[in-house]
Sequence to fold (263 residues):
Amino acid sequence: MNKPRVKLPEAAKPGDLIEIKTLISHVMETGQRKDPDGKTIPRNIINFFSASFAGEEVFKADLQPGISANPYLSFFMKVPGPGEFEFTWVEDGGNKVVERIKLNVT
Amino acid sequence: MKDAQATPRIDRRAFATGAGALALLAGSAGRLSAQATEPAWQQALKSLVGDVKPLEGKVTLELPEIAENGNTVPLTVSVESPMTANDYVKAIHVIATENPQPGVATFRFSPLSGKASAASRMRLARTQEVIGLAELSDGKFLIGRRTVKVTIGGCGG
Fold:
């Protein structure tokens, strides 16, 4: 899996409602398609995403093949104070990508 | 003259009774086959809500009216909620009624979320209704629906 992209506001104050946007490149193969020889292409998707902040859970998503390739996810958080985000993407088979980004709290 | 009038009346009644019986038969046959082949999306919905009847119209689904490319349809789901520690939206499930696999995603929130809203991009196989089902912290369910016309389907063949 490739390095994900995450967009956070440049700065936030405690109590602010911020939007977090994430994107990761992934084929999100549905398991419904066939190759030119008529064989089914096995399913391979990112099936789980989670975001935590300063060790506390913020948002999670269970994804199915109905999510488009290069899955984009955006969600919100009410800033509790300073801290670091931890984002995790999990692929079928258990491969993981973890990204940690500090939020600039002023 | 009298006879001629009476005869068609009886015929009509006989016909009506027969037609009624046929309709009843057809109706029960329809119900039986509906039970046997309940659409996959209804099974998906039932597995989430059980016997609870979700409250209609409280989940907002932002989707295009017409999606030219069913491979990537922008989606935002949201529910009005105070999002406090004891009154918040636990999850929103997204169901695409006419996709080969109707379950699309489940977004799970926390009191830290601040706002019960999430966005992504989804695949739609054909023109269909998309359902958003929200699960609240008090065990209630809310439901919202939106129809999207799809020009080119997005699930491969």
